[in-house]
Every structure is written in structure tokens, then in C-alpha cells.
Amino acid sequence: MSLRFLTGAAAIAMIGALAPVSPASAQQAAPAPAPAAPAPAAPAHLVWNGITLSAHVEGGTNVNPASPDNNINFGQLFTDRANSFRMNQLMATAEKDLDPAATSLDWGFKLQGMYGTDSRFTHTFGLWDRATNSPYQFDIVEANGQLHAPIPGTGGMDMKAGIYSTPIGYEVIDATGNFFYTHSYIFNFGIPLKHTGFLTTTHLTPMFDLWAAADTGVNAGPPFFRGSDNNGTGAFLVGLGVNNPVPNLTILALAHIGAENGYVKGATLCGVTTFCYGANPNGAVRQIYDVVTTWKPTDQITVANETNYTRDDLFHATAEGTAFYGIYKWTDQWSFGARAEVYRDDQGFFVAAFQESLAFLNAERGIPAAVPGFSGGYNAGKATYSELTLGANWTPALAFPDALPSTLGLTIRPEFRWDHAWGLNPGVHPFNVTAASAAAGTVGTANNQFLLSVDAILAF
Q1: Which fold has domain 3-13+53-459?
Q2: Alpha-carbon distance 189 to 175, whole Å?
Q3: Which of 87-91, 141-145, 265-269, 425-429 is predicted least confidently?
């Protein structure tokens, strides 16, 4: 058993110890008399002059019993480090939401910054994306203004301009918006993370919303920032939202199309994959199609499905996947969930691992990775991946509420995950890289990967 494995196990124990535990006598004592009238619920976050202020810190670990020599959980980005503790996010947000019932002009905004290891993958080009080689980096996740405009005969139009998180997909960057600590293959490799542009949502009827946007591309920044795009072409988004065709059912179908590969000057270069491309990627686009269906049949049960298809025309590479979610709220403090997913990477272009802190950003820009020794980025070739994740969310009652802010909350998310890969070339395995397998160029030694993960989110 390796030292890294023991370190990861110790980190799990430390996170558990961080959870404030109410005295046992509190469970045995008689309940206090009910108040004559229900007290108003405390706000979820601090509100100042109509502006909501919130923040959270998230840290966790992934115990990988195989202890790969390169310390990488293959096929994951945000939770890619095996048997080590990471602070994923220290995030602060100031926002003013639009009034969904507004019948006149209404305005809002959102400013959200993040520091931590997650920023390695969320950078907007040109915004502190090369400020440090450390795994701990800073990123502006959102910086946008919003406007609601009434349109006769409709519910009006919501507009957003600036940097914003993608509306595509079921999972999100903000850890407080996800049930699981680890992410799906679709989130990691099948959808954008952020856009810079202009997004509109037109509420045609109470049931139908029309989505449309023009932006600079996947994770690309404002055109007036130097180095803000990895190519010279913009992109567009279009889609349809369906609200409550049956009670508590929503469907969001979106497509994003634009040139997304890096603009590399000079001779033909090879990137992370075995494919090579020339100096100008602007003549080919990446097509992303995604449908998310969410249904809440009861107050305790949520079920969801995300289906994704992605095609990169420059590399003639496609990927398709589907993920199913089931979440059961057992009590106010305990919820349980499962995620099952299948994701096919037809040419081995999308699913990859990135050893160095800037390797993912370099791959997006089209800068070749240092493939020998897998010191930069690498993939395992064409394969079909499946994953099954079982997890829980525990939100314990804090022991000393009078001494802490009323908006303070703690969530601990333990989970077990099993990844499996098949359909690879003979002798190639994606998981559990060893020194010998890296030297032989066979990537790893196993087609299965097991993780026991846990993180804690302290939010206010």
C-alpha cells in the first residue's frame, strides 16, 4: 500500500473530523415547544441593497487504491489527482437576479471569482490564464450584466452580456450546484464551460423559451483582450427550453457551433492526440448538441438525463454519451444519489488526462503537449467509457449556531465511483499508469478504475 494511498485516506478522515457534531444529549433531550407562529426562514445568503453576496470553500480528496505512478485519475479533470487533498474552489459571488415576474424593464448582474485547482480548467483565455504554473490559480467565472425587456404577447426577453457560465449541460462549475464531487465525462469533455458574448432567452409562452447567443467560442474571452481567443472565429448558440409539459418536468435542448481548435503558427503540429493539424483551424467547426431533461415527481425525488453529441470537423472526431441521475432527499440532512453514464470517444480525441498545471490550457490553445513520459497531456485512443457513481450529501446541523453567521452551511459529499473502458486497441489500457507502461507507450495497465472520494463545502 503506497504512501499516497495512506495520505488520501488520512485526508478523508480529516474532512470527517471537520464536521461539527451536535452533542449526543441533544438527540435524547425532549424537543423544545413549538413557537406560537413559525419564524421567518433565514436567508440563504447575505443580501445588501438587493444584491446577494455569497461565498464558499470546497476541498476534497480521491482515494485510488491502484495508486497510479503519475498520480492521475484518468478521464477526469477537476478531480484528477489521486490520493492527495486539494482545495478545489474558494469562490465569492455578488449578484442581482432578474425578477422572473417583471412586466417592465429590470436589470441585474453577476460577478463571480474563483481561486483553487478547478481554475486550471475554467480559464477564460487572456484573463490570468498564464499568471502561474501552480495548480492553485485564479479565474473570473462570471462577469456580466443582465436585462429583462418586456415584449408584447410574450413573457419578455432576458439578456446577458459579458462572461458567463455555459447554459449547456446538467452539471455546473459552482460546486454548490452539483450533487456529486466528481464530474461526468460529458461535463469534462463534451460541453463548453464558459462563454464571452451575448445570450438571450425569449419566453415565447409559459411553456416554451427560445435561446440564442453569439460568443467568441468555448472558454474564449473578449475580442479586445490580447490572446483572448485560441482562433479567429466566433460561435453561436441556439436552442429551445420546454417548461412543465407535465408538472415539474423541464427539457433544455441547446446547440453550440463554432471553430474551437487552437490557432498555431508555423508548421503542422501534433497536439495531445495522435492527430496533427495545420496552422489555421478557422475553416472547421466543433458542433455540440446537448439535451437535459429534469423531472421532480415528488418533493423528495429528482431524476434527470443528459444526452450529448459532439463533432470536431477539423479532426473528424465524434463523441456521444448519455448520463442518468437519480437523487432522493431522505431527510433535511441526508440525500442519496446515483449517476450512470456511457460515453463513447470514437477517435480518442476528447477524453484525456493532463499532468502539468497548464497542460489543459495549452491543449486548448493548440500548443503541443510533452507526450513522452506523459508529462503534459495524453489520451488512450478510441474507447467507450462507462461510470457508475453512488454518493450522499450530508448537511449536518452546526454545533454552535449562535456563534456563527446564520447563513453558514456545511455539506459533506462522500461517493464511490467505478469507471470502465472497452473497445481500445489491443494492449492499450487507460487507467493506472505505471513507469513501465508510460515508457512502453501503452498508457496504463487497467481497464477499470475505482475511487472513494469525499469533499466538504463550507458556504455562506
Answers
A1: Porin (2.40.160)
A2: 18
A3: 265-269
**How would DSSP label each residue in 377-418?**
EE---SEEEEEEEEEEEE-PPPS-GGGS-TT-EEEEEEEEEE
Distance CA 168, CA 310 (A): 12
Reported as a single tens digit per residue, the pLDDT across 365-382 is 777 655 444 556 788 889
- Separation between Cα atoms, residue 51 and residue 93, nearest integer Å: 10
Measured distance CA(37)–CA(90) in Å, rounded: 38
Whether the CB-CB separation of 446 and 431 falls below 8 Å is answered with: yes
Cα 252 to Cα 239: distance, rounded to the nearest angstrom: 7
- Supply the pTM of this predicted model: 0.87
Q: What end-to-end distance do the CA atoms of the chain give, in Å?
A: 39
Report pLDDT for 403.
Answer: 64
Instruction: Count H helices and E strands in the chain, helices first.
Output: 6, 21
Q: Of the candidates 362, 235, 239, which has an alpha carbon nearest to the alpha carbon of residue 287?
A: 235
> Alpha-carbon distance 198 to 146, whole Å?
10
**CA 16 vs CA 295, 333, 401: distances in Å:** 32, 15, 19
State the burial class of residue 434 (Cβ atoms within 10 Å of its Cβ: 0-12, 13-18, 19+): middle
Residues 6+ apart with CB under 8 A from 231: 217, 259, 260, 261, 262, 263, 281, 282
- Best-predicted range by mean pLDDT (102-106, 230-234, 390-394, 403-407): 390-394
Q: CA dist 305 to 31, 296, 335, 341, Å?
A: 41, 12, 19, 10
- What is the C-alpha separation between 271 and 277, in angstroms, rounded? 8
- Mean pLDDT for the stretch of residues 145-155: 94
Q: What is the mean pLDDT of the chain?
A: 85
Closest to 336 measured CA to CA, from 264, 414, 241, 407? 414
Q: Residue 165 and residue 61: Cα distance in Å, rounded? A: 25
| Per-residue model confidence as pLDDT tens digits over 313-357 | 888 899 999 999 999 999 999 999 999 999 999 999 899 998 888
pLDDT value at 47 more than 60: yes
